[in-house]
């Protein structure tokens, strides 16, 4: 009877319906005498009673589950307003996508060599300037991946809110997200995609946690022209992602390059050839979930001639992948993963960056152009030479506005200054501001 009781208990636990009442404990092989004799073994009967489930504990569990489901439904509606949260698993991909088969596919088709601690100058000239893919081992020499795994992060940030899918209106506590991640049956699960991760606070110490230790790998440090502008579009993210989630086919914005360092788990990448538009239906494929792309397109594309075939990378912990500007790519999480990624505007690709940014982000580009005039006038002059007639008119307008603002500041400095202070010296002292913030 004791053996059968244990079997019954295990069965009911697997089914999520384990009864921990006294009667159930007895039937599972924990005799009444054992429960009653706890006091004789030095365990007070009151302690035993406290640890046994009560109606009050059941109510607390039910309320907590209700709170979690309400929060999850709310962020799903924000992340995808057009889809009913109840239909997120309608295609049944949780049972249809064979992730083990995709791991084997990645192992077979990943032929990328790994670079080990490359020197900065040769890497930038050959890979960044030459727009060549690269996979680097130990690029984050000062980063310990063990400190950024899910188990460590949930211990430190359990009650801290993180952005989902790069949407600042869709935020979930880290502990709730981990619960979702471990149990989700969604076809395309939510991911933590947080651009403000450095400012998340440790629960225990009431201060910025270990995520604030983040630093850019040496080979990419100081390589983004957009860093001249204080308020720039989001450029770096912490990604915590459930298996089967991923990023759809895309090209990085505003002519930027990207690097991605994996800290836990496995990711499968597919980077399309340079002339992707000739061989792939980008309009359709950019709207496919990552898992579906690999099943319906990726596996077949692996059999194409080499020039038309995607480059596949099975990324492992500690590896950093560099994706050059302009290359379409799709990423699938084969396991639960943690990664840090960053986009950067390289001077090597200044021409493309300017052409795209002046059209797509004119307000930001105005600030960017003004900062170039202050810090990199050589690039500001090149911008004027590169632009079309219409765009050049815009740049000339920005330049005039910047000059007028400088004159206003000079006039203000003259009025407020005391006799004997050289006006030009005042302008030099204020050169870091020079009207940029006012615009």
Account of the protein in words:
- Strand 1, helix 8 and strand 2 form a beta-alpha-beta unit.
- Helix content is 42%, strand content 15%.
- The termini are far apart.
- With 439 residues, it is an alpha+beta fold.
- The protein has 17 helices and 13 strands.
In short:
By secondary structure, the protein is α+β, with helices and mostly antiparallel strands. The chain has 17 helices and 13 strands. It has helices spanning 2-14, 22-27, 32-36, 45-51, 55-79, 93-96, 99-109, 120-128, 150-157, 174-183, 282-285, 290-301, 350-360, 362-375, 377-386, 389-416, 423-429; strands at residues 114-116, 134-137, 161-164, 167-173, 192-194, 236-241, 246-250, 257-264, 267-271, 311-315, 319-323, 329-333, 337-344.
Percentage of residues in helical conformation: 40-55%
Strand content: 15-25%
Low-confidence residue ranges: 1-7, 12-51, 404-439
Beta-strand segment tally: 13
Q: H/E series, N to C?
A: HHHHHHHEHEHEEHEEEEEHHEEEEHHHHH
Biggest sheet record: 7 strands, mixed
- Coarse shape: globular
Q: Overall mean pLDDT score? A: 80
Structural class: alpha+beta
- End-to-end separation: 81 Å
Write out the strand line-up for the largest beta sheet, numbering strands in chain order: 1-2-11-8-13-6-5
Rg, nearest Å = 28 Å
Number of helices: 17
> What kind of assembly state do the chains in view correspond to?
single chain
Topology, element by element:
Blueprint: H1 2-14, H2 22-27, H3 32-36, H4 45-51, H5 55-79, H6 93-96, H7 99-109, E1 114-116, H8 120-128, E2 134-137, H9 150-157, E3 161-164, E4 167-173, H10 174-183, E5 192-194, E6 236-241, E7 246-250, E8 257-264, E9 267-271, H11 282-285, H12 290-301, E10 311-315, E11 319-323, E12 329-333, E13 337-344, H13 350-360, H14 362-375, H15 377-386, H16 389-416, H17 423-429
Parallel strand pairs: 1-2
Antiparallel strand pairs: 2-11, 3-4, 5-6, 6-13, 7-12, 8-11, 8-13, 9-10, 9-12
Helix pairs in contact: 13-14, 13-15, 14-15, 14-16, 16-17
């Amino acid at each position: 009877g004791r053996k059968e009781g244990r079997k019954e208990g295990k069965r009911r636990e697997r089914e999520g319906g384990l009864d921990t009442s006294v009667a159930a404990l007895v039937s599972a092989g924990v005799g009444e005498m054992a429960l009653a004799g706890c006091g004789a073994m030095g365990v007070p009967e009151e302690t035993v009673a406290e640890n046994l489930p009560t109606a009050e504990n059941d109510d607390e569990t039910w309320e907590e589950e209700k709170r979690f489901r309400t929060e999850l439904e709310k962020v799903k509606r924000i992340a995808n307003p057009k889809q009913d949260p109840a239909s997120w698993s309608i295609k049944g991909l949780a049972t249809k996508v064979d992730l083990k088969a995709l791991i084997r596919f990645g192992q077979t088709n990943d032929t990328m060599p790994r670079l080990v601690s490359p020197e900065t100058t040769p890497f930038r000239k050959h890979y960044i300037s030459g727009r060549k893919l690269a996979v680097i081992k130990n690029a984050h020499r000062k980063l310990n991946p063990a400190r950024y795994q899910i188990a460590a992060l949930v211990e430190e940030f359990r009650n801290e809110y993180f952005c989902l899918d790069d949407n600042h209106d869709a935020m979930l506590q880290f502990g709730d997200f981990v619960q979702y991640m471990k149990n989700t049956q969604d076809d395309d699960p939510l991911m933590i995609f947080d651009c403000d991760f450095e400012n998340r606070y440790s629960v225990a110490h009431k201060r910025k946690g270990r995520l604030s230790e983040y630093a850019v790998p040496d080979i990419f440090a100081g390589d983004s022209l957009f860093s001249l502008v204080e308020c720039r579009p989001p450029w770096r993210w912490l990604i915590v992602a459930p298996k089967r989630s991923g990023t759809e086919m895309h090209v990085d914005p505003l002519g930027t390059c990207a690097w991605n360092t994996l800290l836990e788990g496995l990711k499968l990448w597919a980077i399309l050839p340079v002339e992707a538009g000739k061989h792939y239906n980008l309009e359709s494929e950019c709207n496919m979930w990552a898992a579906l792309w690999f099943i319906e397109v990726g596996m077949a594309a692996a059999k194409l001639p080499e020039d038309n075939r995607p480059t596949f990378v099975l990324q492992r912990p500690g590896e950093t992948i560099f994706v050059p500007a302009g290359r379409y790519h799709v990423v699938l999480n084969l396991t639960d993963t943690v990664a840090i990624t960053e986009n950067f505007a390289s001077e090597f690709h200044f021409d493309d960056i300017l052409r795209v940014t002046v059209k797509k982000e004119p307000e930001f580009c105005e600030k960017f152009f003004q900062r170039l005039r202050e810090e990199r006038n050589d690039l500001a002059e090149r911008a004027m030479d590169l632009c079309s007639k219409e765009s050049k008119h815009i740049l000339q307008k920005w330049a005039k506005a910047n000059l007028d603002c400088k004159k206003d500041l000079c006039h203000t400095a003259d009025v407020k200054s005391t006799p004997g202070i050289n006006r030009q010296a005042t302008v030099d002292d204020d050169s870091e501001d020079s009207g940029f913030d006012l615009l």
